[in-house]
Amino acid sequence: MFAAIGKFTARRRKWVVVAAVVFTLFAGVWGTRVFASFTGGAGFDDPASESVQADKVLQGPLGRESNDLIVLYEAKGGSGATFEEFGPAVRAALDGVPRTGIERLDSYWHPGGQDKGAYVSKDGTRTYATVQFTSDVDQDQVEALGKIKEDFAAQGVDVRYGGVAAMTEQVNSLTGSDIARAEMLSVPILLILLVLIFRSAIAALLPLAVGTFVALGSFVVLRVLTMFTDISSTVINVITILGLGLAIDYALFMVNRYREELHAGADVDTAVERATATAGRTVAFSGIAVAISFAGLLFFPSRFLSSMGYAAVAVVAFAVVGALTLLPALLRYTGHGIDKWRIPLPGSGRRARTPKPETQGRWYRTAHAVMRKPLISTLAIVAVLVGLGAPLLGVNWARPGEWVLPSDADAKVVSKQLAADFPSNPAQIMTSVVRFDGPADTAQVTSYAAELAKIDGVASAAVTNTAGDTARVTLHYTPDPMSDAARTLVGDVRSVDPPDGAEALVTGMPASRVDIVDMIGERLPWMALFVAVVSFLVLFLAFGSLLLPLKSVILNLLSLLAAFGAIKWIFQDGHLSGLLGFDPIGAVDVNFPVLVVAIAFGLAMDYEVFLLSRVREEYEVSGDVVESVALGVQRTAKIITSAALLLVVVVGGFMASSILFMKMIGVGLVIAVLVDATIVRGLLVPATMALLGKWAWWAPAPLARWWEKYGLREGSATPPPAPAPAPAQHAGASR
Fold it and tell me: Which domain of life is it from (predicted)?
């Protein structure tokens, strides 16, 4: 099948390339407008959680009690001028703010439910105003803020914007700039690395061309998806960089195999056909594995994760199609010119004339070394990976808040100054919604509020509204909403018995954080099981073995464990914070393990299929387990490490992100990919393959017969090329 795809696209190469160019131009014009099509907001919450159910009740007659926007004022330049001096200018500005879309605007002059003194800092140099919008939808709030933001400006006064609405606006504005910066940093480095890897400018440009086609096409895919479902505005960074990285990864496999076929003496058409039949098969299986991993995100009801799943599956499929159609056409056009514009490197001429035999290769020798004592090697490497994952035991999971922003972002500065300089932080509000079977009993609710006020961490609790059979109790709390103390606080509040015949639903940032952490904790094992089982089946279809897929799943989980432990050590404990440029918050975003499982597990399967395909080729000829593994590792080590390095450069764009949870994803993926491509593929795979011996390829007789009939074998029956001279017993190897 894959050989036929290569033959067809090479024969129709003119139309394939023209269609790709037209589509890329269309994507650059129409697809890049996707930023205006996001309607799903951030979408971090669980729709079935207690906090979201409470929010839905508050949308009715009861109404919300929330400070969506906090506008902080200080004398310009931090001159130390007092509130009495700049206060009149602030009041004049607030009086001129249009009330369209605003439910409530409170300040020193209109204090609402607080004392006037709460609006002035302890040193008398700052004041603030709070806004509650009529809509509780974050994107609606951002739109409303954009219409009135300039009206808050006061003469001679510095203005900063905090609260959830401002945080969402600032995250959205940083998202586009982060993508542009990531591409500006990664693309030149990618081009240099591709030239160094292939030693040819022509060969280097092909993966970059396919990567550009897929990256821009990803915008089209996302915009089409927004026509059918709400897509979280935060997926754009992950999806575009993922599309670019996978496309370059897949193109690297194909171009490398095509060159090997040419160097082995095949003509251009045959080389294209064989490369698509072999490396193209690997690309297809890799795409299936990555898509399966992302499909696991559909286990989670939060819009951020589910929309990431929809979008990623579509983009991965697009990357596979691009690699299997556009690339063979480009290869056919390139022909033997794939090695033109050679880039001479110091000392490369002599090595090119006298290539080193595979049996003298570094990775060949390393594989033999770990296979001499496979049990000791396996135990030692597993111990190292488990040790890297050990810090995960003390992790404190959080959900995104203003902490994801850079230290100089308004929302983050406002949050810090409110906590440090004012009697209370107006952003730290929780609400308990009390629902009765009949009319709300005010006396009972008041008694319930008094019990809540006694809880450690609750600054105040008061009944702020009743409507029909519901009542609203507003709590001001003191702990950091992402701290362990805040989690304990939520548990204590929810453990207080509501009035007789009533139920209480608690919401607010600490409550929603607890709900989403609990939801992900409950569903992540099911996602992992789904991904593991389906990946197991895909690997069985590829290789006809029962033990190999099991081994692969376990090894992939070990590399993920190491990445998780490193992330906790870096971001929660604060190590390397200066180098990476972030403020540690003592927690890790709970969405991080879900996304890294989805992305890194799929990429690990990518490298696994590529490696085992070459091992299988050799094993079917020689029947020598140890030698086939050593040669397979040697023949794939350069391309796997190169692919991993290129992917690290692409994903490294996340590390430069000014949004902290994107930086977490970037660092986590870099660690997971590097650990998997080096320690796991180069050391642990050979050791475990030697332990399994011929049992690695075993399946019960009925399954073996079924696989012989229906399994997805490579379609080419021609001999694989030997990229470097090999011993006589391997030189004539054939599939």
Answer: Bacteria
Distance of CA 365 to the CA centre of its chain: 36
Amino acid, single-letter form, for residue 197: I
| Tokens 């090997």 -> residue | 260
Flag whether 443 is in a domain.
yes
Residues 30 and 139 in one domain: no
Confidence of residue 431 (pLDDT cuts 50, 70, 90): very high
Q: Exposed, middle or buried by CB within 10 Å (0-12, 13-18, 19+), for 28?
A: middle
Query: At 406, which helix (H) or strand (E)?
Result: none
Residues 211 and 306 in one domain: yes
The one-character DSSP state at 475 is E
Query: Which residue, 594, 595, 597, 575, is CA-closest to 586?
Result: 575
CA separation for the pair 71, 94 (Å, rounded): 10
What digits encode the pLDDT tens for the residues 128-144?
999 999 988 777 888 89
Strand ranges of the sheet holding 102-106, from the earlier edge strand across to the other edge: 102-106, 126-133, 69-75, 157-162
Counting the structural domains of the chain, the total is 3
Q: What CATH number did the domain enclosing 85 receive? A: 3.30.70.1430
The tokens 């139309």 sit on which residue? 15
Residue closest to 590 by CA, chosen among 516, 668, 666: 516
Question: C-alpha dihedral over 404, 405, 408, 411, to 10 degrees?
Answer: -100
H or E segment and range at residue 504: strand 502-508
Q: Which amino acid is at 355?
A: P
What is the spatial distance between Cα 213 and Cα 655, in angstroms, rounded to a whole number?
24
Contact 170, 408 (CB under 8 A): no
Give Rg (Cα) of the chain: 29
185: Cβ contacts below 8 Å, ≥ 6 apart:
652, 653, 656
Segment 499-509 mean pLDDT:
91
Residues 208 and 163 in one domain: no
Return the number of other C-beta atoms located less than 10 Å from residue 390's C-beta. 13
pTM: predicted TM-score of the whole model, two decimal places? 0.80
Instruction: Tokens for 681, please give them.
Output: 């593929």
Domain boundary among 324, 350, 376: 350
Is residue 406 classed exposed, middle or buried when 0-12, 13-18 and 19+ CB atoms within 10 A define those classes? middle
What distance in Å separates the CA atoms of residue 329 and residue 14, rounded to the nearest whole number?
A: 8
- Tell me: do 129 and 8 sit in the same domain: no
Residue 185 resides in a domain: no
Per-residue pLDDT for 624 more than 90?
no
Residues 6+ apart with CB under 8 A from 445: 434, 463, 466, 471, 473, 499
Are 472 and 466 spatial neighbours (Cβ–Cβ below 8 Å)?
yes
Tokens for 358?
């595979």
Residue for token pair 């190169």: 642
Which residue type does 523 have?
A: R
User: CA 369 to CA 630: how far, in whole Å?
Assistant: 10
| Half-sphere exposure (Cβ direction) of 639: Cα atoms closer than 13 Å | 27
- The mean predicted confidence, pLDDT, of the chain is 84
Q: Are residues 204 and 324 both part of a single domain?
A: yes
Range of the domain at 77: 59-169
Going through 401-440 in order, the beta strands assigned E by DSSP cover 429-436
Residue 9: give its domain's CATH number.
Answer: 1.20.1640.10
Pick from 323, 350, 377: which residue ends a domain?
A: 350
| Digit-coded pLDDT (tens) for 186-216 | 778 888 888 888 788 888 888 888 888 887 8
> Does the pLDDT at position 261 exceed 50?
yes
